[in-house]
Amino acid sequence: MKHLIVKQPYRWYALYVKYKMEKVASKELQQRGIEAYLPLKHVKRQWSDRVKVLEEPLIWGYIFVRVSHKEYYDALMASGVLRYVCFEGKAEPIPDLQIQNLKKFVDFANESIVITSGHIAKGQGVKVSSGALKGTIGEVLELRGSKRLLIRFGNLGCCVHVELGVNNIELLESKRTRSCFSLPQP
Asked: Is it the case that residue 83 has pLDDT exceeding 50?
């Protein structure tokens, strides 16, 4: 009888980590051979004698890991890692597309475009139709004046601020939007 080797699927999950331990945990996970993603932002800090640009986590207290069932528990052994982000007692996998979209936003965070239309409403789904973020889909949580749009990614459970022009987005149907972006309630 032949033994079947079943390849375990790799999925993204969010991990809670101790405060200011994000970089340490990410480095250790990678040393253990576990794919880890820590979105970082560049922040200017001024001291009395100099200005320094630092890298800080975009989302404090979280790291994203891509693991199969085999590495699922190994990820919890890294320094600073507390537990998986769970909904109804179960770790919720994050679709690959949402991690790719988050990476795009981090890479192109300084891109500046302007919203010029009042036709966009809270809860509306939008898809970026051109530029570096082309294909990115999100839900409008809030319009902040005429220039800022707050977009949420479903299972990430976080919001990303972006500035988009009306010619760079297309509106999605609201029924589809609600089903694509609704989060499980804790």
From this structure: yes
148-153 and 40-46 beta bridge pairing? unpaired
Gyration radius (Cα) of the chain, Å = 19
Q: What's the token pair of residue 54? A: 């630092």
- Residue 112, token pair as written in the block: 């500046």
DSSP letters for the chain: -PPP-PPPPPEEEEEEE-TT-HHHHHHHHHHTT-EEE--EEEEEEE-SS-EEEEEEESSTTEEEEEE-TTTTTGGGGSTTEEEE-EETTEEPPB-HHHHHHHHHHHHTTT-------S---TT-EEEE-SSTTTT-EEEEEEEETTTEEEEEETTTTEEEEE---GGGEEEPPHHHHHHHHPPPP-
The whole-angstrom separation of Cα 136 and Cα 120 is 16
What is the spatial distance between Cα 173 and Cα 137, in angstroms, rounded to a whole number?
A: 12
Query: What pLDDT was estimated at residue 53?
Result: 85
pLDDT band at 67 (very low <50, low <70, confident <90, very high): very high
Q: What is the pLDDT of residues 121-162, one digit of tens each?
A: 777 887 777 666 677 777 777 766 655 666 666 655 566 666
Q: How far apart are CA 11 and CA 8, in angstroms?
A: 10
Do residues 170 and 177 make contact, with C-beta atoms less than 8 angstroms apart?
no
